[in-house]
Amino acid sequence: MATLPSYHVQHRSHGPQKTCASCGQIVLANLTFCPNCSSDMRSIPENVRSAPDGRTQFQIPSFLLADAPSRRYDDPEIGTGIVWVGLALIAIPALTRNLSPLSLGAWAAGIVLTSIGIARARGDNRAMMRAGLVTAAAGLLTLLVLGNQIVRHAEPTDRDLAVSGIQQTPTAESNSAETPMQAVPTGSSPMFRGSPEHTGLLAGPALAGSPYRVWRYDTGEDLRSTPAITGGVAYFGTRDGYLVALDLVTQKPKWTFDLGGYPVRASPAVGDRTVFLASGYNVFAVDADTGELRWKTAIDYAGESSPTVVDGMVYVASKEDHLYALDTTTGEQAWIYKTDGLLFGSPSVDDGIVVIGGDDGDLFAIDRETGHARWKVAFESAIYSTPAIADGLVYVTTQDKTTTAVDLNEGTIVWSYPVGGSASPAVADGVVFVGSDDGAVYALDARTGGDPLWIYATGNPTVESPVVAGAHLLFAAGSMILSLDRSTGEVNWRYPVGDLVTTDPVVLDGYLFAGDKSGYFSVLTGDASLATPPPTEDRGAGGGTSGSFGST
User: Fold this and answer.
1) pTM, full prediction
2) E-state strands within 148-222
3) Taking a C-beta distance cutoff of 8 angstroms, is the pair 376, 366 a contact?
4) Among 78, 324, 469, 506, which residue has the fewest nearby CB atoms (within 10 Å)?
5) What distance in Å separates the CA atoms of residue 516 and residue 168, rounded to the nearest whole number?
6) pLDDT tens track of the chain, all 552 residues?
7) 450-477: string of b/e by CB count within 10 Å (b at 16+)?
8) 225: three-class secondary structure by DSSP
9) Strand order of the sheet with strand 211-218?
10) At CB < 8 A and 24+ separation, what contacts does 482-489 make?
């Protein structure tokens, strides 16, 4: 009888085995006869080698006789865990609605990890099944999230165009103290800190009497875009990347415009019925009445810099060390100026000069026509504030708690005083008002500096940039908005907003507008302007002198 070669039999053998006592061939344990020599195998136990010469038999450990797998896998359960991590990374852009390079990088890494996890898990059927179920569930969840976003923010035209005509109802609760505004506000604060010089001098008038909240609008969370207000409409950006045109009378948006999902920290600027705002990697020009896109121009990452509009040009700084001059009609670049440091503040413009400071401590004066530097002053500390220009002087605060006055045309230092920080100064009628990082507000002589005219200690380490409206100096300290008499520093009133105030106050027609960390856009007024005062439980403290006050 023909026999198979022994190597062929060994190659095909799997499972429990026996060793033929006659020929030494290793065969499957379930065979009755040896396929090599036809010897009877029934009496031979499994895994026992019987030598023909009668030598001592011994038991071979089972792990030595077990077949080696065709491919070695580490613990397949690890694969399922890798799949979960990968899917979590993939979900980041969908859940956060953020398309930044970091978010997209997480998405790409998630795809790679998910693929690796599935490859690791396929060595175990149960692990593979779990990985498949997790993948299917995560995919369904992602589709639901994306579908919800599409339904909420569907656009009838190209994504670059505005979402016009979308009406949103304020989600803030109503109460008995909230009433409609009595008339359309006629005042205007068309850009950050009121004007291209960024002095913080607003049209006013300020609130009359004790303050109370008229109404508030819920933007979602963390509202940091100081509103630009004109024509009875407040324009501001939101954390989820939208430009909102909020009608102050109806308390509802006229329109919203999708800026691409990047959180907005800058304030819009309004000019020639166009709203200008930088977000992400573009500057947008949006029709103020319809919300339709007029143009957009690519820039470096926008950051916190608010645009400034003057005489048909919009000046805006990217966080990544570039200052741009763009035509307001077409968006074409007139010039670009590169600095050596990152730019957090906004460009201030006066007398044909654009002034801005960087985090490397350099303060630049750029010619508006040519885009060339006229002068540069190097400070020893970073500049995060926006300079104020008034009466031929530039006032700037630096991180080492210093306020300095610089000649606008010559670039020479006129005076310096050791107070200041991140907040931008306000200037009115020969006085500079500085919110300092030491928790106090200082009034300094704009021409000579010297000892403060008065000091008000807020008792709070966070003091935001002050603004001036009539005889009032208004600013936020923590969750409190305060009004001081700007001549004496005495407290007119204090109002607790409820959360950290994150925008500059804007004061027009007896109303104050501000945003907070909870995302509320709040509208305040004073009870002296009403025939019937509101309930007392929603009023701020008026007329008190809480907090220490010093006069020098």
Assistant:
1) 0.68
2) 211-218
3) no
4) 78
5) 20
6) 444 444 444 444 456 888 888 888 887 877 777 877 877 778 788 754 444 444 444 455 555 544 444 444 445 556 667 777 877 777 766 665 555 567 677 778 878 877 787 776 666 666 566 666 666 666 666 656 555 554 444 433 333 333 333 333 333 333 334 556 666 678 899 999 999 999 999 999 999 999 999 999 999 989 999 999 999 999 999 999 999 999 999 999 999 999 999 999 999 999 999 999 999 999 999 999 999 999 999 999 999 999 999 999 999 999 989 999 999 999 999 999 999 999 999 999 999 999 999 999 999 999 999 999 999 999 999 999 999 999 999 999 999 999 999 999 999 999 999 999 999 999 999 999 999 999 999 999 999 999 999 999 999 988 999 999 999 999 999 999 999 999 999 999 999 999 999 999 999 999 999 999 999 999 999 987 554 444 443 434 443 333 333 332
7) eebbbbbbbeeebbbbbbbbebbbbbbb
8) coil
9) 211-218, 520-526, 511-515, 506-508
10) 482/458, 483/206, 483/207, 483/211, 484/441, 484/456, 486/428, 486/431, 486/433, 486/443, 488/454, 488/551, 489/441, 489/443, 489/453, 489/454, 489/455, 489/456, 489/549, 489/551
> CA 203, CA 179: separation in Å to the nearest integer?
23
Radius of gyration for the chain, computed over Cα atoms and rounded to the nearest angstrom: 36
Q: How far apart are CA 197 and CA 545, in angstroms?
A: 32
Name the DSSP class of 61. Answer: P
Q: Which residues pair with 367 in a beta bridge?
A: 353
In contact, 512 and 500? CB cutoff 8 Å: no
Helix or strand holding residue 413 (H, E): strand 413-417
Which of 105, 106, 100 lies closest to 281 in space, CA to CA?
Answer: 100
What are the φ and ψ backbone dihedral angles of 138, each rounded to 5 degrees?
A: -65, -40
Residues whose CB falls within 8 Å of the CB of residue 250, separated by 6 or more in sequence, listed in order: none
The CATH topology of domain 192-550 is Methylamine Dehydrogenase; Chain H (2.130.10)
Strands (E) across 85-210 are located at: none
Q: Is residue 319 classed exposed, middle or buried when 0-12, 13-18 and 19+ CB atoms within 10 A define those classes?
A: middle
Structure tokens at 73: 């896998």
> Within 13 Å and on the Cβ side, how many CA atoms surround 302?
29
For 206, the 3-state DSSP assignment is: coil
CA distance from start to end of the chain: 121
The answer to whether the peptide bond before residue 205 is cis (omega within 30 degrees of 0) is yes
Residues in the chain: 552
Cα(329)–Cα(338) distance, integer angstroms: 24
State the amino acid at position 520 in one-letter form. Y
